[in-house]
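User: Hi! I'm working on a homework problem where we have to compare a predicted structure to a textbook description. Could you give me the structure for the chain below?
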Amino acid sequence: MTRLFNDPSDFPEEARLGLVAAHRDKLMAVPGGVVRSTRSEPGTVAVVIGGGSGHYPTFAGLVGQGLAHGAVMGNLFCSPSAQQVYSVAKAANNGGGVLLTFGNYAGDVLHFGQARERLIAEGIPCEIVTITDDVASAPLAEIDKRRGIAGDLTVFKAAAAAAEAGRTLDGVVAVAREANRLTRSFGVAFDGCTLPGAEDALFHVPAGKMAIGLGIHGEPGVSEADIPTADGLAETLVSRLLEEVPEGIARQGARVAPVLNGLGTVKYEELFVVYRRVDELLRGAGLEIVEPDVGELVTSLDMAGVSLTLFWLDGEMERWWRAPADAPGYRKGSVTPAEAIDPAEVESAARREIPPATEASQALAAGVVAALEALAATVDENAEALGRIDAVAGDGDHGIGMQRGSQACLDAAREALHGGAGAETVLRWAAERWADRAGGTSGAIWGVILTSIGEALGDEQPLAAERLAAGVSAASASVMSFGKAKPGDKTLVDVLVPFAERLSQAVATGEGLVVAWEHASQRAQEAAEATAELLPKVGRARPLAEKSLGTPDAGATSLAMIIRALVPVLKRCA
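Assistant: Happy to help. Predicted structure tokens:
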């Protein structure tokens, strides 16, 4: 278990600052993550990687010459917020555009996508490449739905080497996409990981068994099998990966870079025992091995697990794989030391000032804060139950994430209200802080919801049923657009869509706001309960879909609870 910590909530930030303190020759702390502390060639592409904390040396340990220019660091196993991504990308930008690359998880896709839009709006070219190397998480026909696990390393390495060589943004993107196409990973776990301060692991595997097809965020495997010998495990890993040779690669005589990765508590000697047999099997299959890596490269705190990655090389990919790199957690070859940069040169994002608002909107803003107080109280009361629901097929952190986000959102809303903000500004500040503090998919989604409602309310007018209903409808459309989920996918959308539709219908037919909200709240509760009969089609729960049958979706459940809790607030404000 994770034993050494102070306040568990401070663990990711204290780990980040400690890493920088230990590697000031390579790293500099910036809001949201780290960037290189050495100068890059002006006009070159900046490769910015990222995701949740808890995976060292991925992500921050892979920042340095020949590797990433910056890493965004979310909370433990939670995607970073759009603001964090934007902040790190701005600091890392060398003038040649930015490549954002990360594992294919819904929250990361949302937050990095929002940051990309903001960067482009400011004139900074920016592209995204998601990593989809985990063969256990979806069939080949749905490769775009696969997760990114230890194959992150090969894509980061290739893209960064291409950027270091002076390739344009389009060229670096092409290299990253090809590296991802040529990378496959498969892993197993013997036991789950424990978050700092938690009494138990996120999941357990029965004694004598191993979970097949693990994730790196505390997700259980997709099936279980007896624990084999070290040689038997090597045979399991290699045989599964050799079933799926990338298109265009002739297996006989192919050159391949294997990465045998320990996830936290399977140590180096054990890995070397396994790799001994991996090497024999790959050579016996007619492959030529190029610069293998064995060690802890993409971890999951203290998870007991192993994964094998095969990076199938052509001439260009081998060049990028062999290129020198010098980062805190990964070194290869020899680099020419780069000049240190002054922290004052690093560009940072300044916070916007509070725009003017009418007295009517300031009064409405006070009602918004009251609603957010009710929201936060509801989440606090139900956080444990929401975590249990989420743990059935996910990583069990929904309740904790909602607590972090709702409290941070409330603090920001109070701060904006105290500064004289109107309703829209209060909700914008609340949305940004929720997404920034909570991270993950729910953090991104709640940021979208609050922002959409705020835009409808504005900073000038008092509360009106029509504008509130329009804001909820806009939130519904925006969440589906950003998250790519639709009704029936077993997500929060299964509640948000029918709630928005029922509220708009009721308001359009002349029902008062409170009555309309109450009726729509009943519809939301029914929709949340109905998700128990659905199988998840997107998100982290999708690979374990069958396990979730009979259990409602955690995000849908929390949204229905919150909608119901806002009825008394509306009665006071309407």
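For your comparison, note the following. The chain has a mean pLDDT of 92. The chain has two domains: 8-336, 359-573. Good luck with the assignment!
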